[in-house]
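Hypothesis: this fold can be encoded by more than one sequence.
Test: take the structure tokens below, design a sequence, compare later.
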């Protein structure tokens, strides 16, 4: 193919491409942009005979967890890079794009910057994510219903049946002492039943969380854990009975509850440590939590011993309040669940 033909094809591709293509110099000034870029980006007061800086369009690169920054800007990179960037468009909105940036003339400092819209791709990914999330939530709800149903059947129903059988015998007992003994046994059955129902109620939603707040609810739960599992919870709660947003309190309570339950079930330990405190730094107020056990631990890359929905639920819960959670564990080194929620 002749060079003239190749140049003609490249020019046609440049002008007719549905991909936005911009050439920028070493100072970040736009040397030229194709028609699609000119139609899409906000080029108000843009005199094509003059340079315009790419930063007047760019709003920063996506670096994770919803953060957009200009650190390590692509303009200073010599190798080819691909990243997600946000650009200001002609209608004034800020839109995400998949960008490719490559230096093509090192001597003149000229680079090519290509952009493809990400909105539709993000919508598809979000729909798939929501679908998977819904499926896992439904599965978690069904598993929880099965557990509650099994607890009610094996616990409450069995105890009620025992009491019913004892009471049916009352009318045949003529000896006063024997009747008194049977009644005492029935009272014991009913007391156990009351404790069992109360435990189920506490697991589902502790009243103290709504009435007295996070700190009181956690202390009550820790006492219940000690009675139920024989495991001591050493807590360091530095909140001075302060109340927080109800959603934040619920998220923190559930994460700590799940971490302690996992320790009791899998870690083989007698003590769990819980730290919870409010801090203030340059980024603002946050509620920090950490749950540690020195137990068996597990490989984070291996299949979980249980359903894995507990760990999944932690991440989903904390993300709903813009927080973060980290799980650090290794076989033989225990498990630490830590995180922070902005207030």
């Amino acid at each position: 193919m002749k060079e003239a033909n190749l140049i003609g094809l490249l020019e046609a591709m440049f002008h007719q491409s549905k991909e936005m293509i911009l050439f920028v110099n070493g100072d970040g000034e736009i040397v030229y942009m194709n028609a699609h870029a000119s139609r899409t980006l906000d080029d108000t007061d843009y005199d094509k005979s003059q340079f315009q800086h790419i930063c007047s369009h760019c709003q920063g690169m996506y670096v994770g967890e919803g953060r957009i920054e200009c650190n390590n800007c692509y303009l200073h990179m010599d190798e080819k890079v691909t990243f997600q960037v946000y650009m200001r468009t002609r209608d004034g909105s800020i839109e995400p794009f998949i960008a490719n940036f490559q230096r093509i003339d090192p001597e003149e400092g000229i680079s090519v910057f290509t952009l493809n819209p990400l909105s539709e791709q993000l919508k598809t990914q979000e729909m798939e994510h929501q679908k998977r999330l819904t499926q896992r939530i439904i599965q978690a709800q069904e598993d929880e219903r099965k557990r509650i149903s099994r607890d009610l059947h094996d616990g409450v129903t069995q105890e009620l049946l025992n009491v019913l059988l004892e009471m049916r015998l009352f009318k045949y007992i003529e000896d006063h002492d024997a009747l008194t003994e049977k009644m005492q046994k029935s009272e014991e059955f009913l007391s156990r039943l009351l404790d069992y129902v109360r435990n189920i109620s506490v697991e589902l939603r502790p009243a103290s969380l709504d009435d007295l707040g996070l700190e009181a609810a956690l202390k009550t739960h820790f006492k219940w854990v000690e009675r139920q599992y024989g495991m001591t919870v050493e807590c360091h709660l530095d909140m001075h009975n302060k109340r927080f947003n109800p959603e934040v309190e619920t998220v923190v309570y559930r994460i700590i509850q799940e971490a302690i339950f996992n320790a009791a079930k899998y870690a083989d330990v007698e003590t769990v440590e819980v730290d919870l405190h409010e801090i203030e730094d340059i980024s603002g107020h946050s509620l920090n939590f950490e749950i540690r056990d020195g137990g068996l631990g597990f490989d984070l890359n291996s299949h979980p011993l249980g359903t894995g929905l507990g760990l999944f639920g932690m991440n989903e819960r904390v993300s709903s309040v813009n927080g973060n959670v980290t799980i650090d564990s290794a076989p033989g080194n225990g498990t630490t669940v830590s995180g922070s929620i902005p207030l």
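The mean pLDDT is 78. The first helix runs from residue 3 to 16.
Hypothesis status: open.
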